[in-house]
Amino acid sequence: MTTTCEYKPGxxxxxxxxxxxxxxxxxxxxxxxxxxPIEELAEKSHFLETAxxxxxxxxxxxxxxxxxxxxxxxxxxxxxRIRDMMKCFPESGxxxxxxxxxxxxxxxxxxxxxxxxxxxxxxAVVRLLAKIPTMVAAFQLLRHGNDSIQPRDxxxxxxNFLYMLTExxxxxxxxxxxxxxxxxxxxxxxxxxxxxARVTASTLTDPYAVIASAVGTxxxxxxxxxNEEVLAMLERIGxxxxxxxxxxxxxxxxxxxxxxxxxxxxxKDPRAKILQKLAEQVFEKFGADRYYEIxxxxxxVVAEKLGxxxxxxxVDFYSGLVYRKLGIPQxxxxxxxxxxxxxxxxxxxxxxxxxxxxxRPTQIYVGKRNQPYLPLEERSL
Length: 381
Ligand code: SDX
Fold this sequence. Notes:
This protein is mostly helical and 381 residues long. The chain has helices at 38-44, 47-56, 62-74, 80-87, 95-109, 118-142, 157-166, 172-185, 192-201, 207-218, 226-237, 243-253, 270-286, 290-306, 315-325, 333-354; strands spanning 22-25, 30-33, 36-37.
């Protein structure tokens, strides 16, 4: 065993794996999935094809893609006992908690675990990609006392999710915009939730536990949960005039401005650029959003005040504005991130299994030594 005496908070700059899944160039603001620029995928691909690329490592031939799509379609439904379990969830609970619980529960229903069997891996990949959106949509309806809606086999992955949320078939633009959002969120190297997924995977536990642990990690406001916080922040600011004092106050109090900053990107996140364009497309079709003006002013003021520190909009800054225009409730923004990122987590699960060694870093003990055991009556604070 080799140990290093150096500790880097947040493991900043520490390598945790070799990976061939995605590369992030933080200086130039470039992101590639399996070597393909994100801009090109956003323009030409669709979510299930991109998921295939990430998970299996190459762009599928037409018949492979068709078979994969058909398998996912076939597994979209969830067991009635999972729906019944979800009916018992408190309606005030956060949908990320509902998703984490439901994802973990899949492990109860599909408990066979044969990690060296390719057909088991394939079935788990298909099941998770297929069922996670259905579970997110089901919780949304069940918590409002409605029955969940069965998936529609004639709709694409993205369109079907929007349909299951609203019982209305989405228009073409909404379905395409949502599909691009899923692609943009599908993978991003060794981020916190992916690291979590890989640590869990390295114990050789089942894939449902891997995804459940990643969902729990994604939920926090410093990670995926920031997309929901951004809208709350824009609403709190309320007007373009209030932006500057808000940013100045955050800087003075050393509080974090949601949707800004990134461990890797020191320029504007390339996904934020695409999401901003998508936001403009939906505003053009469905009407302006006054919070967009506030967001633009925030970007300007933050660039002025914190740009020299490399703090710019990240993926979570504009996504909420897009989702809101598509009629999606605010607390579903992070579950939608999870739907998309399931593709990346599964790709890392496979990669981890391919060259597995259990993650077991070290620590530097800084606690007390040689302490006596005191009887209860002799203890004081
Ligand atoms: C995601 O890793 C990934 O790839 C994640 C992700 C993915 O696709 O998986 O891209 C998705 O999680 C996006 C990030 C969403 N989170 C937020 O928007 C929350 C706000 N942002 C931050 O809290 C922060 O920027 C992080 C969490 C994203 C990054 O944290 P780091 O790398 O640990 O940076 P830090 O907190 O140590 O900050 C470094 C400096 C500090 O200033 P100094 O003490 O050095 O003077 O930058 C400042 C910070 O105060 N800073 C900010 C800031 N982000 C960093 N100051 C104000 N507002 C911010 N948002």
